[in-house]
Specification:
Strand order of the largest sheet: 1-2
Number of strands: 4
Mean pLDDT: 80
Strand content: 5-15%
Radius of gyration: 23 Å
Helix content: 55-70%
Structural class: mainly alpha
Distance between the termini: 35 Å
CATH architecture of the largest domain: Orthogonal Bundle
Number of helices: 9
Largest sheet: 2 strands, parallel
Low-confidence stretches: 94-111
Order of helices and strands: HHHHHHEHHEHEE
Length: 183
């Protein structure tokens, strides 16, 4: 099997194949293996919403950032079940999971007041401000969470801006309806 993957790597880098590698290529259907891997790679990139042109280093950077983001969500009690029928058969909510996991945890203290930013006057400035907030927070937010950080911002306008950011690939909406910056 290793020989097939060595041949596959040579095909990807356009290196010439030796006679032995040509035999492995023909007998092992390495071209089919390559096609299957390419299709799988494309599906994974699409699932993450990433461009297929990323380098290995860029992929690793994005995965590390995503892992950090997921860890922060779990710390806040947001659990993303991959197979809820097996992992969470009782249908315990994220908040309940947090309380069950650590019953000795005291009630969370009230959040410190956040200094509100002025709501920008123009649409491009508003879009930029909301996108910047999503990136800085590194947390999933509701439209209300975003609106309270700006003076005179309306939740409906914020929701429309967030949906626009999702449409243009600058943000994404989680399964739970929250918004996060796109990676």
């Amino acid at each position: 099997m290793t020989g097939m993957y060595n041949v596959l790597e040579k095909l990807r880098t356009d290196d010439p194949l030796t006679a032995k590698e040509k035999t492995i290529h023909e007998q092992g259907l390495v071209s089919v293996l390559k096609q299957i891997h390419d299709e799988l790679d494309a599906a994974v990139f699409e699932a993450y919403g990433w461009p297929i042109t990323l380098t290995d280093e860029e992929i690793l950077e994005r995965l590390v950032a995503l892992n950090k983001h997921r860890a922060a969500e779990e710390e806040r009690g947001l659990i993303r079940w991959l197979r809820p029928e097996f992992q969470n058969p009782g249908g315990v909510t994220e908040v309940q999971t947090k309380l069950i996991a650590d019953p000795e945890t005291p009630s969370p203290a009230k959040k410190a007041k956040v200094k509100k930013q002025p709501w920008p006057k123009t649409l491009p400035e508003r879009i930029t401000a909301v996108r910047k907030l999503l990136v800085e927070q590194q947390a999933a937010l509701t439209p209300t969470d975003v609106a309270v950080r700006f003076s005179r911002a309306k939740k409906d306008n914020i929701e429309e801006l967030l949906d626009t950011l999702v449409t243009v690939g600058q943000a994404r909406q989680t399964e739970t309806g929250l918004y996060v910056a796109a990676n």
